[in-house]
Amino acid sequence: MFFVILFIFSTIFAITLGVPDLPFPQGDEIMHIRSIRESLELGSYTLPVLSGLPNPYKPPLLFWLGMFFDRIFGVSYLAERLVSFFFGIGTLTLFYKLYLSISKSLKETKLATFTFAFSFLSLKFFGLLMMEGAMVFFTLLYIFLFYKSKNKKSLTYVIWGSFFVGFGYLLKGPILHIYIVLFLISYLYIKMIHVRNGKFQISFDPIWKEKNTLLSFGLSFLIPILWISYLYLFTDSGKELLRFFFITENMGKFYATNQSGLRIWGGWLLYTVPFTIPILHILWISLKKPSNQRNQFLVMTILVFLLFVTIFHLLPNRKDPYYVTPFISLLFLLPAMKKISWESLVLSRFNSFSIPIIYFLFVAIAVVLRLPVLFSISLFGIIVTLSVIFFFRNEKFKFYGIFIPQLLLVPITMVFLLRPMSDPDITKQNINADGKEVCVIAENPWTAMDVQNKLKTSKVSFALPLTYKETCPNAEILINYSESTSFPDHFEKKTSWYQWKQHLILDSYQIADALRKVDKRSFQSEVSVWSKGEKR
């Protein structure tokens, strides 16, 4: 029954991936999709391209897989996003097997798999064409094979794990190698450092004992060396691509700090939603109550590893919260390591009372934004959760009365809050741009890439507001995302719509006043479409 339910939810989730604008977007996805489709159009299969030139920002694995799925299923958002979806299925499979190996409890494993599957991390990045979903998979794959290697006392598992890390290089470069090195350092640190009778002791014997594991990691460089050699020796622009990727794109991120480190810490809280409170609870238990049980060594290794990767991501200038996503699955594994049941974590007083509070917030948002379906569902959620907290004594019924409403928090947000509030679909705006030259006037070239991804049969160009006449002299249709652009008389305004602004400059009084008046125009800007032809 567990696998049937998981399959049904997975199928429903997969079907929704064909919608161009998902509830939880990520800007980089636009560029990745554009690179895949341009590469297919130009027949550049080996070396993906972007804007007509070799893509210097990321290695090719994600683009290769996207092109493969587009070839099988046809060029579409669904085909391209199935790449991350299948990485998600692979990750959940690894998670299930690893959790079961540690906990030995089938019931706890099923509960933990559901919590991880319905986390914000899973519901966002296993449905977007981003490297993050694949990075979660490859990170967990190595740790899973490492654990199996130690459990079975067989080097074969860790050899395969090291080899697969090489494929991870083809996603985002050497970053996965750094993660695994930090994991191995964490493992050796716990083995080497001891405090006994108030004395600090260090032993180097573990390094010698783990020499085969460390040496096997050399296999992870096989695929990167082959790919780098191919670029350097057999492509005209290979040297420039390597120089840009390693120096500008990677080392350049350590040049100066321009983002707050709180963003990284916020990522740990954000991507564990809606089970952030149980995760914080198990973290507190792990730190406060160390034990002598068999898995304590594994717990300490994971905690040190998470600290190391956090410190590492605090160093570059960019500190996006999603940088911590490859490690979120390890937090959901902690209850298995500590032999703590998910039932006790979910039924803790703080977590139990937080769920009706969140549904109360949903009710308030539904009233302000006039969303009747969200209001009804949230009201039902309040009744259910408060009833099981105050009136039911059956522990099993009480657990599921909290667990299921908590499990559904992110899906409810996606379907009943964000979807009704989403921007209009440009493909349904009667633009009549098939086969025509379209000029997108905006501040960001990614806006034009997004339009080109959606208007597949049109030829889309990008222009800044002040340069569109020179940039797009032959454009038949202008799509204007700038609020202060005027057009010549031979262009006629055909249609317009409003979309949410990405950057707002409003003080707290203006925001409060807009909310009081239910005036969403304060948060939106007009997008207008102009067609060449009659005078206006």
UniProtKB/TrEMBL annotation:
GO terms for biological process: lipopolysaccharide biosynthetic process; protein O-linked glycosylation. The keyword Transport does not apply. InterPro entries: ArnT-like_N, LipidA_mod_glycosyltrf_83. It is a multi-pass membrane protein. The chain crosses the membrane at residues 61-78, 85-102, 114-147, 154-170, 176-193, 214-233, 264-285, 297-315, 321-338, 350-369, 375-392, 399-418. One of its GO terms (molecular function) is mannosyltransferase activity. GO terms for cellular component: plasma membrane. Keywords: Cell membrane, Glycosyltransferase, Membrane, Transferase, Transmembrane, Transmembrane helix. Pfam families: PMT. It is found in: Cell membrane. Residues 64-225 form the ArnT-like N-terminal domain. It comes from the Bacteria. This is Phospholipid carrier-dependent glycosyltransferase.
